[in-house]
Amino acid sequence: MRNQTKVVISLLFILIVCAFTFVDTKVFSGQISQHPGNRMESTSTPCADSKPDRSKYLEIDVQKALIDRDTRIKMDEQYLRDTGKPNPYVDIHDTNVYDVALNLAGYPNLDGYQPDRVTIEFSGNDQAVAIIFDEKLLDDSIFAHEYRIELYHKESIWKISQAGVRYQCSRGTFSGWTTELCP
C-alpha cells in the first residue's frame, strides 16, 4: 500500500511539472525564407525531457560569439550588396526566440544551409532552452554539431544567458559526443 501511495504521489508530481513545461520542436524544410515561421514545421510536446544538461557542452563566450557573428554578417552584407543577391539577415529580430538562437548558431548563412533540427523548451513565458542540431556540415572532421542555448525574455527582447556546443567527430578515436575539437 505504501509503495502504491509513493507511485501515485510521484505520478502527480510529474503531471504537475509537465503542466508547466512544453517543448516546441521546429523541423526545417525547404529553402531559407525571410522568417523562421515560413521554413519550419512545428509541434508542441508536453513534458519532454529532451534538453541535455549544460555540463555536456563546451561553453561559448556569448559576448565574443555575438561580436564575431555581427562582424561576419557585416562582411556578408557587403558581399550581398556587391553581387545583388537577396539578404537573408534583414529579418532577424531579437523579439523572436528562434531568430536569436539560430543567429548565434550561425543561421541564416550564405551557404543556405539550415539546421536539421531545432528544439526549444519553454519554461513559462520568459525562459527557454534551444537545442540546434546539424549534421550537414562543410567540415570533413565533424560529422555533427549541437548547440545548447539558454535564453530569457526581458522587455520584449530575447537575450542569451548561456550557450554551449558539442561535436560528433568523423574520424579519430571519438565516439559519441565530445567537447574537444575534432582531429
**Strand segment tally:** 7
Oligomeric state as shown:
single chain
Name the structural class: alpha+beta
Helix/strand order:
HEEEHHEEEE
Helical fraction: 25-40%
User: What's the gyration radius in Å?
Assistant: 19 Å
Distance between the termini: 56 Å
What strand line-up does the widest sheet have? 2-1-4-5-6-7-3
Whole-number count of domains: 1
The average pLDDT score comes to 78
Strand share of the residues? 25-35%
Gross morphology is: globular
Low-confidence runs (pLDDT<50, min 5 residues)?
Answer: 5-49
Largest sheet, strands/sense/barrel: 7 strands, antiparallel
Helix count equals 3
Describe this structure in words.
The protein has 183 residues and is an alpha+beta fold. It has one domain (23-169). The chain is 26% helix and 32% strand. It is built from 3 helices and 7 strands; from the N terminus they run αβββααββββ. It has helices spanning 2-19, 62-83, 97-104, and strands at 21-28, 40-46, 58-59, 117-123, 127-134, 142-154, 157-169. The protein has a 7-stranded antiparallel β-sheet with strand order 2-1-4-5-6-7-3. The chain is globular and about 45 Å long. It starts with a helix and ends in a 14-residue tail after the last strand. The model is unreliable at 5-49 (pLDDT under 50).
